[in-house]
Design brief:
Layout lengths: L11 E8 L46 E7 L33 E3 L4 E2 L4 E2 L11 E3 L7 E7 L2 E6 L3 E6 L21 E6 L14 E3 L2 E6 L4 E6 L2 E4 L6 H8 L7 E6 L10 E11 L4 E4 L12 E7 L4 E4 L3 E4 L6 E6 L2 E7 L4 E7 L19 E7 L4 E6 L5 E5 L2 E6 L2 E4 L21 E6 L6 E11 L3 E8 L4 E2 L2 E2 L3 E2 L9 E4 L2 E4 L3 E3 L2 E5 L20 E3 L2 E7 L11 E12 L1
Antiparallel strand pairs: 1-2, 3-6, 4-5, 7-8, 8-9, 9-10, 11-12, 12-13, 13-14, 15-21, 16-18, 16-21, 17-20, 18-19, 19-20, 22-23, 23-24, 24-25, 26-27, 27-28, 29-40, 30-38, 30-39, 30-41, 31-34, 31-40, 32-33, 35-36, 37-38
Length: 573
């Protein structure tokens, strides 16, 4: 019967295996030492058992364990002048530079992986081969990699390249030397795309659909599309000024942010506030452990859940109690602004969210206005060649899977466009819908000053006019005047009954269109005799109209708006 022994060291063999004596100093197994007898019954003058020989381990009295004896032997069978087993070649490299090297503009690749032959060298980085591909350092660090067919897209802060995989561009004789034939290429030549565009420090803005790639370059105030015709600045389609102003507010610095624990919460109520990246508590808050150990402990770094009971004691999970004046109790966190992006496969839109206060900092109550002016989420439509809508949700990840559009918040995944019967504008489990509105600019015949008398729209019932404002009309005595109109109620909300007859104070329905008169609501100006509701319409070169859904007609249901128009008369050239 054969026995398999594991060799502990290269070219070493186990010659003997002897079991040590038991706890009662009697041997539990006989053994022999090569060349010399071993009598474990020999007792010395002090009464101890002769443990001969002690090599290579010393015995511990009373221990019951197995000891392996090893004898280094370099000749086969241990015979005189027999063949010697050598250690073989030793391959090593000495690197005398132990300092860290930051090569943020370089790519490094490992050995091959072949599942058919069982070769897996993905953890092998041989310094004897050229396994590093450098991009130009002047274009900044590499922020994003995307493999497409047989090419690798490399997004640096200030440039976009295409790297050839397993191939190289062949040049003619007058353009430069050709690469040596037969040479294995992993990452070949870097081919730049035209235009000094990059992805800045926002790789989270990247999205792909088909052969189109979308990303944001905040350093150049641009949202870009990379397709077969190169890089196109899609933020130029009617939103150039908007993105210029918004990208200025997107910061790369991990700045401090202070969160007041009472923010968005009423006194005496029980609420939960989730905080991330907490680095401390402002001066004035006493932080102690539950067991009241001395000295008081500092606030734990990481994600914590804070519950606010009706008392002034704030419990911080898992084992901290903070006693402080709630009005001045603040958490200090680190934050970095984000530009998230993703593809909406349902509406075929590129959706991006510019967040100066990302959701991973805190999960404030969704049914409040705590996040107002901290994010802007909007979408770009290829068919319309423009930015079609703003949204009132703030995600931390945007993507599509199998024709379904998903966004992520905290530890939850939400599917959009699901069960939309009465859930329009109800994002992330909200019970009441967010406001849906449309801003239109009426500007026919731009060089003519006009009186806009009426407004009409084609679509569903439930739209109302929130505001109508004319163009600015100059400054008099430090005041700049604009004509404004009174709000116009929707078809249902403006209905009233007079002598048994239903009438409408807002929009009325005629020939399947909703129409209403524009009633002037401007304040009196110096020298003005007739003003306000005594006159009809608003005067200006153009007028801005904001329509929104009302709060009572088919709440959460579909309210489509196809077109809107205004009847005007000529005032002057």
């Amino acid at each position: 019967m054969s026995t398999e022994l594991k060799v502990k060291y290269y070219n070493s063999f186990i010659l003997k295996k002897i079991v040590k004596k038991s706890a009662d100093a009697t041997p539990n197994q006989e053994g022999s030492w090569p060349g010399l007898p071993w009598d474990p019954t020999v007792i010395t003058s002090d009464g101890s058992v002769v443990d001969y020989p002690p090599y290579p381990f010393n015995d511990d009295a009373g221990a019951e364990e197995t000891v392996n004896w090893y004898l280094e032997e370099s000749r086969i069978k241990g015979g005189f002048n027999n063949d010697i087993i050598e250690l073989g070649a030793r391959a090593y490299a000495v690197n005398k530079n132990f300092k860290q090297s930051d090569r943020s503009n370089s790519l490094i690749f490992s050995g091959i992986y072949n599942d058919r032959t069982g070769i897996n060298n993905t953890n092998v980085f041989s310094v004897g081969e050229n396994i590093v591909k450098d991009a130009d350092a002047m274009y900044g660090s590499i922020q994003k990699l995307y493999a497409e067919d047989t090419n690798l897209l490399i997004f640096q802060e200030n440039k976009v390249h295409k790297a050839l995989i397993n191939k190289d561009t062949i040049y003619s004789g007058d353009q430069g030397a050709q690469e040596a034939l037969g040479r294995t290429k992993v990452i070949g030549q870097l081919v730049p795309f035209l235009g000094e565009y990059g992805i800045s420090r926002n790789p989270e803005s990247f999205a792909i659909y088909g052969y189109r790639k979308y990303f944001a370059d905040k350093d150049r105030s641009a949202v870009l599309r990379l397709s077969r015709d190169g890089i196109t600045e899609i933020s130029f389609y009617g939103m150039r000024d908007y993105f210029r102003d918004e990208f200025i507010n997107i910061s790369d610095l991990r700045t401090n942010r202070v969160i007041n624990i009472t923010s968005g919460m009423s006194g005496g109520s029980t609420s939960v506030l989730t905080l991330n990246n907490v680095i401390g508590v402002e001066v004035g808050a006493i932080v102690e452990e539950v067991n009241n150990t001395d000295p008081p402990q500092t606030f734990p770094t990481g994600s914590v859940v804070v519950g606010i009971p009706s008392s002034t004691t704030v419990t911080i999970s898992p084992a901290y109690v903070v006693t402080a004046n709630l009005a001045s109790f603040n958490f200090v966190t680190k934050r970095r602004d984000k530009v998230y992006g993703g593809w909406d496969s349902h509406s075929k839109n590129y959706t991006t969210s510019l967040q100066t206060e990302p959701r991973n900092i805190s999960s404030l109550i969704e049914d409040t206005d705590e996040r107002e002016n901290t994010f802007n989420t909007l979408s770009f439509d290829e068919n319309a060649q423009g930015w079609t809508s703003f949204y009132s949700y703030q995600p931390i990840f945007i993507n599509s899977l199998k024709n379904k559009f998903y966004t992520f918040i905290d530890d939850k995944i939400y599917e959009h466009y699901a069960d939309v019967g009465s859930n329009h504008c109800k994002f992330y489990g909200r019970t009441t819908p967010d406001e849906a509105s449309v801003e239109l600019i009426f500007n026919p015949n731009p060089s003519v000053k006009k009186n806009f008398n009426t407004i009409s729209y084609e679509g569903d019932n439930g739209w109302e006019v929130e505001s109508i404002i004319s163009s600015k009309q100059g400054v008099d005595n430090g005041v700049q005047y604009q004509d404004t109109a009174s709000p116009i109620k929707s078809y249902d909300e403006g209905a009233y009954t007079e002598r048994g007859v239903t009438k409408h104070a807002g929009f009325d329905r005629k020939e399947n269109r909703y129409v209403a008169n524009i009633v002037n609501g401007s304040t009196v100006r110096p020298g003005e005799v007739i003003f306000g509701a005594s006159i009809s319409g608003v005067k200006g070169y153009f007028t801005t109209v904001k329509l929104k859904v009302d709060d009572s007609t088919n709440i959460g249901g579909v309210k489509e708006l196809y077109s809107a128009s205004s009847n005007y008369v000529l005032s002057s050239y």
